[in-house]
Write a structure and sequence with these properties.
The chain has 144 residues and is mainly beta. It has a single domain (27-143), classed as Immunoglobulin-like (Sandwich). It has one helix at residues 3-23, and strands spanning 35-36, 41-45, 48-56, 64-71, 79-85, 93-100, 109-123, 126-143. Strands 1, 2, 3, 4, 5, 6, 7 and 8 form an eight-stranded mixed sheet that branches. The longest helix is centred in the N-terminal third of the chain and has 21 residues, at 3-23.
């Protein structure tokens, strides 16, 4: 058996594997200095929800955002609550996201929030998400 077909198959498999890893969202591997927190109380008023907290990130080369979502009860459905542009200078900053939700989608009481610092990095001709930090936390929604 010739070495060329085997070498070609191995090279092709390696490129396919590397391509699928590059196309998938990267796992969150936050440096110790990169954090995002969620305040223990979220506010609801006039069909909108406001979530807030703090963040710290470093070494960004593309645009960075703090995104957040909220869900209640056993629902698998999360409501997106906007995104805030982030500054990754190594210092702690406040973030606050406000988003509209459909009528009666959320009620005052316990809820679960996920906040994420995500950077949109150029990888050749693609723009891929790079996650700096994620926080999942139970909070209380209050009606204003």
């Amino acid at each position: 058996m010739s070495v060329r077909p085997v070498l070609g198959a191995v090279t092709g498999a390696a490129l396919l594997l590397l391509g699928s890893v590059a196309a998938a969202p990267s796992a969150v591997s936050a440096a110790p200095a990169e954090t995002v927190t969620v305040d223990s109380v979220g506010r609801m008023a006039d069909g909108s929800v406001t979530l807030s907290g703090t963040y710290r990130c470093t070494d960004a080369t593309g645009p960075v955002y703090v995104s957040s979502s909220v869900r209640q009860g056993s629902s698998a459905y999360s409501h997106s609550v906007g995104g805030t542009r982030a500054v990754c200078d190594g210092r702690e900053h406040r973030w606050e996201n406000t988003g509209n939700v459909s009528d009666d989608a959320l009620k005052a009481g316990p809820a679960h929030v996920e906040a994420t610092i995500v950077e949109m990095r150029s990888e050749g001709v693609l723009v891929l998400p790079h996650f700096h930090a994620v926080q999942r936390q139970d909070i209380t929604l209050v009606q204003d």
